[in-house]
Design brief:
alpha/beta, Rossmann fold, 3 domains, 9-stranded mixed β-sheet, 6-stranded parallel β-sheet, 34 helices, 22 strands, binds (1S)-1,5-anhydro-1-(4-chloro-2,5-dihydroxyphenyl)-D-glucitol, Pyridoxal_P_attach_site, glycosyltransferase
């Protein structure tokens, strides 16, 4: 944890008044142990201590939390609502201690109680309410919003089961249920009084109301109740404590009773089961292509609850409906919440009786949309029959939005019916489907991509026609990550050195790390830098050994690729290179190659066979390489199971080399790349996503660049790519593929990897083979650079020093300025 936090918090009498001193903490932990866990110290389990300490920390947040909520309700300020189907917040205790500045006090208190703080912190179950980058981004943004003291709320779903736990059996991924709530969640406050009803199914009727106005009534077949579950989000060393409000679904009692009264007891129970299924489980797909009814129901459920909640807060603020967009802005995290366009219209039209034009003006001024992918297979669409059966009234509204929108297009481009078809909210080319990215774009005042390259490609490809129609709506906000969790919390050794070198201000102003540049060539400073990295590698080596049984040498180059497993991210390109290295070392045992430890981590979507096969391949290579005495001290391959926020804390600080090798134009941004950079890893990467900006900031000489550019990729695929040509032209590549196909890495069973090898030879959709030669050449440059420790350390220091841009504080300031017109209130 950050060095010497005692200097950053009120000391003495003032600390005691806030209850932030060690003595009062110790007292409360003991009290809570008895009053909440019903245990006394002699029989308390480690988990009891975790709960008792967490409740004590939560108590210390409550005052700020209540104050913050009150301030927002009273003030004439706009509140940013971040709508996201995922919030991958990670373990809370360590982070809350850091942000409150009471880590040292907690350590002392626990020590006095005979407990080790780090052991207690390590017991926390991970709240895995997200898949990967998109969900973690939302969590980083909440941390920055609170730290910058901006009025904000996160809205999402309180999944009972988060992302599955990944086990590895015989080299294959096996999914296990994530029972994160089993032992209770001390951070959550359930608010049964903050609840809303959400309609599903049924039919609509239009009628004229008492004042003679046309109104639509939606008679639902089923209603679900959403109950608010709040988690505090304290800013770093500030009074602000924002809220993450997640909705859990419950059955509506009156519906049950109605059925019960007519004697249909089992029918009533059945309804209840369906309602309670809604927020049960997170869909484990990082870039979806499923079209499941329950998933659409989840999206509508949390969006409707959130918008109803915002309308209620408006009332609490004493503001009229006309002021809604002045008081709230809702950021749509990808298309998952894009049904908000239709739902806000419905609430304003049907429930508040507004006219279309006024409702539309409010809706558009309220909503803003962030796009996170260009992959056509990941762009969300919903088939009309499914949509109609679940959401008949929102569908009518979408039709009307589309009718008015296409009129506008026709007026601008008379006779251009192919443009109309391209832009329509409904794709009429096959079975008719609603295009959620179009709905989000039409219903928002701002649309943004998540890295400079991605935003340009968005304007030029997927949303080209829209950018032509409304150029002023399009923005870029390059992603960022929180330096609190991903540097101060996870890398305490380095944090101490940074405090000492540039002062403690870096944690809330990451650009101050520039002050490290002056020390990049200082031999004594370099020695300390290396010692910290080495210690972090020893810690990771311990975790690797307990997770896999494999012993790795911390002196080796730690070459790490952790992220979801996807063909476009090209873990298989990395694997091909490992096989080639293994072959080289078998042939030439004396080869002067730096000892390397390749580390992989990441989950595959349970239905994504090729991604699962890539995991099997990495484990197959690991089994062979790690058991070959000739590879001892030269090569190790690790697949670290169940990569999540918790294990990430040990992984980023221990990396020498960060693998960011996606096919150019496919990775929208990447955020792991930023976490590695902050922790002093060098990047080997393509010109893709935020890598482009990472290289700009670090300097080209401090970045290992390889591979085709986005335009090359596009041209090659347009003109006809022939993967076999690359195999024929490259002996090492052919031999690697042959060895994989031979069964060498699958215990002699040559069929296991056939689908993977054949897919590469025939299609290779993500150009792994086209980029192989350049990747291998670049890896040789990495090897040479590693042989010069002073040169490598200099580059490592400069990467950390120049990572300031990638703080989520910078990103959130940009959202505040450019998209939300929202200022911090102190
Ligand atoms: C997801 O994690 C991302 C995009 C998606 O469309 C979905 Cl469904 C999930 C990722 C991008 O792949 C990654 O490049 C980006 O850094 C991240 O979102 C946050 O913007």
């Amino acid at each position: 944890m950050a060095a010497n936090p005692t200097t950053r918090v009120p000391g003495g009498a003032e600390a005691a008044r806030h209850g932030l001193d060690a003595e009062s903490l110790q007292r409360d932990v003991l009290d809570n142990l008895v009053s909440l866990q019903a245990r006394y110290p002699a029989i308390a389990t480690p988990h009891d201590w975790y709960m008792a300490l967490s409740y004590s920390v939560r108590d210390r947040l409550l005052l700020r939390w209540v104050d913050t909520v009150q301030r927002y309700a009273a003030a004439d300020v706009r509140v940013a609502c971040y709508l996201s189907a995922e919030f991958l917040i990670g373990p809370q205790l360590g982070n809350n201690l850091l942000n409150l500045g009471i880590e040292a006090q907690a350590r002392a208190a626990m020590l006095a109680l005979g407990q080790d703080l780090d052991t207690v912190i390590a017991l926390e179950e991970e709240p895995g309410l997200g898949n990967g980058g998109l969900g973690r981004l939302a969590a980083c943004y909440l941390d920055s919003l609170a730290t910058l003291q901006m009025p904000a709320l996160g809205y999402g779903i309180r999944y009972e089961f988060g992302i599955f736990r990944q086990a590895i059996r015989d080299g294959w991924q096996v999914e296990e249920t994530d029972k994160w709530l089993q032992k209770g969640n001390p951070w959550e406050i359930v608010r049964p009084d903050v609840a809303y009803y959400v309609n599903f199914g049924g039919h609509t009727q239009s009628a004229t109301d008492a004042e003679g106005r046309f109104r639509v009534r939606w008679t639902a077949a089923n209603q679900v109740k959403g109950v608010a579950c709040d988690t505090p989000v304290p800013g770093y060393r500030v009074e602000t404590c924002n809220t993450l409000r997640l909705w859990k679904s419950e059955a509506v009692e009156s519906f049950d009773l109605a059925d019960f009264n007519v004697g249909d007891y089992y029918g009533a129970v059945q309804e209840k089961v369906i309602s309670e299924t809604l927020s049960k489980v997170l869909y484990p797909n990082d870039e979806p292509e499923m079209g499941k009814r329950l998933r659409l129901a989840q999206q509508y459920f949390f969006v409707s609850c959130s918008l109803q909640d915002m309308l209620r807060l408006l009332e609490l603020k004493g503001e009229p409906i006309e002021r809604f967009a002045d008081m709230f802005v809702a950021q749509l995290n990808d298309t998952h919440p894009s049904i908000a366009v239709a739902e806000l219209m419905r609430l304003l039209l049907d429930e508040r009786g507004l006219q279309w034009e006024q409702a539309w003006d409010i809706t558009r001024r309220t909503l803003a949309y962030t796009n996170h992918t260009l992959l056509p297979e990941a762009l969300e669409t919903w088939g009309l029959p499914l949509f109609r059966s679940l959401l008949p009234r929102p569908l009518e509204i979408i039709y009307e939005i589309n009718r008015r929108f296409l009129d506008e297009v026709r007026q601008r481009h008379p006779g251009d019916e192919s443009r109309v078809a391209r832009m329509s909210l409904i794709d009429e080319s096959g079975d008719r489907r609603i295009r959620m990215a179009h709905l989000a774009t039409v219903g928002s005042h701002a649309v943004n991509g998540v890295a400079a390259l991605h935003s340009s490609l968005l304007r030029e490809t997927v949303l080209r026609d829209f950018a032509e129609l409304w150029p002023e709506r399009f923005h870029n906000v390059t992603n960022g990550v929180t330096p609190r969790r991903f540097l101060a919390l996870c890398n305490p050794g380095l944090a101490r050195l940074l405090d000492e070198t540039v002062g403690e201000g870096w944690i809330a102003d990451l650009t101050r790390l520039r002050g490290l540049e002056a020390h990049a060539d200082d031999a004594a400073f370099q020695r300390r830098w290396r010692a910290i990295k080495h210690a972090n590698k020893e810690v990771l080596a311990q975790h690797i050994q307990s997770a896999t049984g494999v012993v790795v040498d911390p002196r080796a180059l730690f070459d790490i690729q952790v992220k979801r497993i996807h063909e476009y991210k090209r873990q298989h390109l990395n694997a091909l290179y490992m096989v080639a290295l293994y072959q080289r070392l078998r042939r030439e045992p004396q080869l002067a190659l730096a000892p390397r430890c390749f580390v992989f981590g990441g989950k595959a979507a349970p239905g994504y066979a090729m991604a699962k096969l890539i995991i099997r391949l990495i484990n197959g290579i690991a089994e062979v390489v790690n058991n070959d005495p000739a590879m001892e001290g030269r090569l190790k391959v690790i697949f670290f199971p169940n990569f999540n926020v918790k294990s990430a804390h040990h992984i980023y600080p221990a990396a020498d080399l960060s693998e960011q090798i996606s096919t150019a134009g496919k990775e929208a941004s990447g955020t792991g790349n930023m976490k590695f950079m902050m922790n002093g890893a060098l990047t080997i990467g393509t010109l893709d996503g935020a890598n482009v900006e990472i290289r700009e900031e670090a300097g080209a000489e401090n970045f290992f660049l390889f591979g085709l550019r986005a335009q090359d990729v596009e041209r090659l695929q347009r003109e006809g790519y022939r993967p076999a040509d690359h195999v024929a032209a490259h002996d090492e590549l052919r031999e690697a593929l042959d060895l994989i196909a031979s069964g060498h890495f699958s215990r002699g069973e040559s069929e296991v990897f056939r689908p993977l090898v054949e897919n590469l030879m025939q299609w290779d959709h993500f150009l792994a083979l086209a980029d192989y030669a350049d990747y291998a050449a670049c890896q040789a440059r990495v090897d040479a650079a590693w042989q010069d420790p002073a040169g490598w350390t200099r580059m490592s220091i400069l990467n950390t020093a120049r990572s300031g841009k990638f703080s989520s504080d910078r990103a959130i300031r940009e959202y505040g300025d450019r998209i939300w017109s929202l200022a911090p209130i102190g």
